[in-house]
Design brief:
CATH topology: Arc Repressor Mutant, subunit A
Structural class: mainly alpha
Largest sheet: 2 strands, antiparallel
Strand content: 5-15%
Distance between the termini: 16 Å
Shape: elongated
Number of helices: 5
Helix content: 40-55%
Radius of gyration: 17 Å
CATH architecture: Orthogonal Bundle
């Protein structure tokens, strides 16, 4: 499993918004400047985050984006699953409707299931609020 640029940028943007005044809408230009991300690329990410209700948006003067919840109410796994889809290390544990035809005789399947569980549990144990602390010490997670 490899987290794409889309997932990494979504986490950076959410952390950026978490550090800002939560009462104000932050213009996209301010976010792109702060995070050095292409505005065009970020528009797509913000659309996904907004549609899922993770951020609120407002158009026009004074518009922009802000978190819809407190930073401690977002799990990193939630953000990554939204932007990445499955976080499964292999396709046979993704939970698709069509199970792997080799599942009944695959000796490695328990390894992949446990790894999938560990990945999701780990990412769900980290909150957005954990990312907005000290960027110079051991607490920096990204």
């Amino acid at each position: 499993m490899m987290i794409s640029t889309r997932g990494r940028y979504a986490l950076r943007v959410m952390a950026c918004l978490a550090r800002m005044d939560r009462e104000k809408y932050i213009p996209l230009k301010e976010i792109t400047d702060a995070e050095e991300i292409s505005q065009k690329y970020l528009e797509g990410i913000m659309g996904t985050l907004s549609k899922a209700g993770l951020v609120e948006s407002a158009h026009g003067k004074g518009g922009g984006y802000r978190l819809s919840r407190a930073p401690e109410d977002y799990r990193i796994g939630e953000i990554l699953r939204l932007t990445e889809g499955s976080l499964s290390p292999v396709s046979c544990v993704e939970g698709t409707e069509t199970p792997c035809p080799n599942a009944s005789r695959c000796s490695a399947l328990p390894v992949w299931r446990r790894l999938d569980e560990l990945i999701n549990n780990y990412l769900d144990s980290i909150y957005l609020s954990d990312l907005i602390g000290d960027f110079t010490g051991d607490n920096y997670v990204i």
